[in-house]
C-alpha cells in the first residue's frame, strides 16, 4: 500500500510540504477547515478597504488540481489518535495516516480576556478582515448621521492594540483612509478629524526591528496622523472603548493586534507545549516520541535560529514544510537519520501607509519609499497566480495614483453584543 501522508492545514507550512512531496511515492490527503489558502500578510489591506478578498485567497482544491495523488478535504480536525494513527474530524470523520504533518497555525490571543473579542476583533481570517472593514466603514457612516458631538467623536476614534507589524500596518492604512481618501465623500463630518490611536504596552513599536527602524516607523506613523501611546497596557475593552493605563478612551472601533495563541494541535496529540500553546518539537520537527508526526509553522516552537526561537512568519513555516517533505522522501529511500531543521532568516518587513516601509535584511536596512517598493514587489512575487499579481499591482497603482479605494464595501451582518 502506498505510504499515506496526511497534512492538516493548507497554510504556508502545509502547502510547502505538499509541494515538496511532488513526485514522491506517496498518497497525500490535505485537510483544512477552510476551502482556501490565505495570504495573511495582505489581510490588513482587505480590512482597510484596499484589496478584495478574492485577491489574497485561493481555493486549495484548485491549487492542487493537477496533483492526482493529492486528495483535498474540507473539515475541521479536533483530535489525533496517535496510537492508532488516525486524525479525527469534528463531523465524526476519521482519516488514517502513515505520516502526519500538523500545520494548523495560530490565532490572536487576548491574554486571558477572551471576553474582549466581540469588542476588539483580531485579524487572522478573511471573515476577520471583512468584519474589520465593515466596522470601520460603518463607524464613518454612523458618524455622518450622529448629532451628539461626544458620540460622534467616539465613532471617529479608532483604537489599534499592539504595535507589531500588523498594528502598524492597520493604523497607517486607517489613518490614510480617514485623512486622505474619505474626506470628499462625507458632507456632515470631517473625516480628517478622525483619531487613530495605536496603543503598545512595550517601550517602542516594531520591537522585532532595530531601534532606528522602529523610531523611523514611529515618526512616519505620526506624520500620517496616528497617535501612538507607548508603555501602557490595555486593561479593558468594551462597547464604550478601552481603558489603557488609567485612562478611558471612548472608541467605537477597537482592533486587536497584540498576542497570538497556537492552534490546539499540541493538545490533540498530547504533546508538550509552551505558554502560547505551541508544540515543543524535536530538532527534526517531529513530535517527541512520535517520529511519524511532524508539527510545523506557527503551531510549533523550536530554537533553530542560531539557538533562538524561529519567528512565527510565513518564510519560517514554508522552510519547515520543505524540510519535512525532504525528510519524508529520505525515509522512503530507507534513510532514517535525524535531519535537524535550521532556519534561514531573510529579513523583517513592515509597511507604513502607502508610501513608506521598513525592511531589515540584517546585512542592510532600508526605509522610506524604496522600502515600500521592495515590500510591494516581494509581496506581489509571493502571491499565487499571474491574474492575482496583476490585480493586486493594478489596485495598488490605482490607489497610489488616485487615492481612491475600490474595495470600499460594507458586506454581511454579524452577531455581536452591541449594535453597529
Ligand atoms: C494579519 C497577519 C499579518 C501577517 N503578516 C506577515 C508578514 O507580513 N510576513 C510574514 O512572513 N508573516 C506574516 N504573518 C504570519 C504568517 O501569516 C504566519 O506565520 C504563517 O501563516 C504561518 O503558517 P502556518 O502554515 O503555520 O499557518 P497558517 O498559514 O495560518 O495556516 C494554518 C491553516 O490551518 C488551518 N486550520 C487551523 N485549524 C484547523 C483545524 N482544526 N482543522 C483543519 N484546519 C485547520 C487553517 O484554516 C489554515 O489554513 C502574518 C499573520 C497575520 C495574521
Helical percentage = 25-40%
Which ranges are low-confidence, i.e. pLDDT below 50, for 5 or more consecutive residues?
Answer: none
Our Rg estimate from Cα atoms comes to 22 Å
Mean pLDDT: 93
Please provide the count of β strands: 25
Biggest sheet details:
6 strands, mixed
Distance between the termini: 56 Å
Strand order of the largest sheet: 5-2-1-9-21-20
User: Quaternary status of these chains?
Assistant: single chain
- Anisotropy-based shape: elongated
Number of helices: 11
* Helix/strand structural class: alpha/beta
Cofactors, ions and other ligands in the entry: flavin-adenine dinucleotide
Measured by DSSP, the beta-strand proportion falls in 25-35%
Question: What's the helix and strand layout?
Answer:
Elements: E1 3-8, H1 12-20, E2 26-32, E3 36-38, H2 43-47, E4 57-59, H3 60-63, E5 70-74, E6 77-81, E7 86-89, E8 94-96, E9 99-102, E10 106-108, H4 126-145, H5 149-155, E11 157-161, H6 165-181, E12 195-200, H7 211-223, E13 226-230, E14 234-238, E15 241-244, E16 247-250, E17 253-256, E18 260-262, H8 265-268, E19 279-280, E20 286-287, E21 290-295, E22 300-301, H9 314-332, E23 348-352, E24 356-360, E25 365-368, H10 369-382, H11 386-402
Parallel strand pairs: 1-2, 1-9, 2-5, 9-21, 11-12, 11-17, 12-13, 19-22
Antiparallel strand pairs: 3-4, 6-7, 7-8, 10-18, 14-15, 15-16, 20-21, 23-24, 24-25
Helix pairs in contact: 1-9, 4-5
Bound molecules: flavin-adenine dinucleotide.
Amino acid at each position: 500500500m502506498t505510504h499515506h501522508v496526511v497534512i492538516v492545514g493548507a497554510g504556508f507550512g502545509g502547502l510547502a510540504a505538499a509541494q515538496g512531496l511532488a513526485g514522491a511515492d506517496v498518497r497525500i490527503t490535505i485537510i483544512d477547515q477552510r476551502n482556501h489558502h490565505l495570504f495573511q500578510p495582505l489581510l490588513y489591506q482587505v480590512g482597510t478597504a484596499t484589496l478584495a478578498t478574492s485577491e489574497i485567497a485561493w481555493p486549495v482544491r484548485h491549487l492542487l488540481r493537477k496533483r492526482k495523488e493529492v486528495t483535498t478535504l474540507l473539515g475541521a480536525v479536533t483530535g489525533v489518535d496517535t496510537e492508532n494513527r488516525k486524525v479525527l474530524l469534528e463531523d465524526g470523520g476519521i482519516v488514517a495516516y502513515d505520516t502526519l504533518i500538523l500545520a494548523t497555525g495560530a490565532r490572536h490571543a487576548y491574554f486571558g480576556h477572551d471576553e474582549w473579542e466581540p469588542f476588539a476583533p483580531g485579524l487572522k481570517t478573511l471573515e476577520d478582515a471583512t468584519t474589520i472593514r465593515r466596522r470601520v466603514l460603518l463607524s464613518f457612516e454612523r458618524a455622518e448621521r450622529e448629532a451628539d458631538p461626544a458620540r460622534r467623536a467616539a465613532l471617529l476614534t479608532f483604537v489599534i492594540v499592539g504595535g507589531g507589524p500588523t498594528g502598524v500596518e492597520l493604523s497607517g492604512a486607517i489613518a490614510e483612509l480617514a485623512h486622505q481618501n474619505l474626506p470628499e465623500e462625507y458632507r456632515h463630518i470631517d473625516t480628517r478629524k478622525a483619531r487613530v490611536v495605536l496603543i503598545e504596552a512595550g517601550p517602542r513599536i516594531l520591537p522585532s526591528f532595530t531601534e532606528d527602524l522602529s523610531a523611523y516607523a514611529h515618526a512616519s506613523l505620526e506624520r500620517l496622523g496616528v497617535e501612538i501611546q507607548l508603555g501602557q497596557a490595555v486593561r479593558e475593552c468594551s462597547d464604550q472603548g478601552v481603558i489603557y493605563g488609567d485612562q478611558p478612551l471612548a472608541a467605537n472601533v477597537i482592533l486587536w493586534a497584540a498576542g497570538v495563541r497556537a492552534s490546539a494541535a499540541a493538545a490533540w496529540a498530547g504533546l508538550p507545549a509552551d505558554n502560547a500553546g505551541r508544540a515543543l518539537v524535536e530538532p527534526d520537527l517531529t513530535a517527541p516520541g512520535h517520529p511519524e508526526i511532524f508539527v510545523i509553522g506557527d503551531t510549533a516552537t523550536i530554537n533553530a535560529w542560531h539557538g533562538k526561537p524561529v519567528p512565527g512568519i510565513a518564510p519560517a513555516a514554508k522552510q519547515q514544510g520543505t524540510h519535512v517533505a525532504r525528510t519524508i522522501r529520505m525515509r522512503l529511500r530507507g534513510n532514517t537519520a535525524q535531519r535537524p531543521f535550521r532556519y534561514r532568516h531573510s529579513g523583517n518587513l513592515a509597511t507604513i501607509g502607502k508610501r513608506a516601509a521598513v525592511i531589515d535584511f540584517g546585512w542592510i536596512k532600508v526605509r522610506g519609499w524604496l522600502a515600500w517598493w521592495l515590500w510591494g514587489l516581494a509581496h506581489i512575487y509571493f502571491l499565487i497566480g499571474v491574474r492575482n499579481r496583476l490585480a493586486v499591482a493594478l489596485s495598488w497603482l490605482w490607489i497610489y495614483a488616485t487615492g481612491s479605494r475600490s474595495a470600499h464595501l460594507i458586506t454581511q451582518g454579524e452577531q455581536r453584543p452591541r449594535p453597529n
